[in-house]
Structure formats: C-alpha cells, structure tokens
Amino acid sequence: MQDIMIDTEFVTLGQVLKMTDAISSGGMAKWFLSEHDVYVNGEVDDRRGRKLRNGDIVNIPGIGRFRILDNGSN
User: Fold this and answer.
1) CATH number, domain at 36?
2) In the 3-class helix/strand/coil scheme, how is 3-39 assigned residue by residue?
3) What is the rounded CA–CA span in Å between residue 32 and residue 72?
4) Other CB atoms within 10 Å distance of the CB of residue 3
5) Which pTM value belongs to this model?
C-alpha cells in the first residue's frame, strides 16, 4: 500500500485518480469511474467528487492501493 500525503482537509476521488496516474487529466475521471470499479474503504464508489480524508483507503484494481494521510499524521 502506498501513502498519498495531502496538505488540505480532504482530496477528491478524481484528484486521487490523477495523482496515481490512473488517468492523465481530471476530465477523464467521470469516464474512468463509469468503466472501472474503484473501492473506497472497501466499497465501490463512482463519485469523482467523493471527499477522501486522513485514513481513507482507495483501491484501484490494476493500479494499486493507497492510503490518504495528512501531513500531520505519522
């Protein structure tokens, strides 16, 4: 599992897709989520605006598993 460090209160699922190179541009998020299952904390989620906060786990099959951490966490 890889950690994604954030400096804000939350990051959106669409932003995470771009940060992990699952998509090349933010505009592809809606299409990607309609064609692929993406799991947030073990449940399929297709909302590109889904707010992910410290401790959330994102599993993108074929890409990897990622844990959201804010910079204040260890």
Assistant:
1) 3.10.290.10
2) EEEECCCCEEHHHHHHHCCCCCCHHHHHHHHHHCCCE
3) 31
4) 10
5) 0.89
Q: Rounded distance, CA 43 to CA 26, Å?
A: 22
3-state SS, residue 25: coil
Return the half-sphere exposure (C-beta side, CA atoms, 13 A cut-off) of residue 40.
Answer: 20
List, for residues 11-60, the tens digit of each pLDDT value: 999 999 999 999 998 889 999 999 999 999 999 999 999 999 999 999 99
Tokens of 27: 């505009």
Domain count, the chain: 1
Radius of gyration of the chain (CA): 11
Q: Comparing C-alpha atoms, which of 48, 67, 71, 47 is closest to residue 57?
A: 67
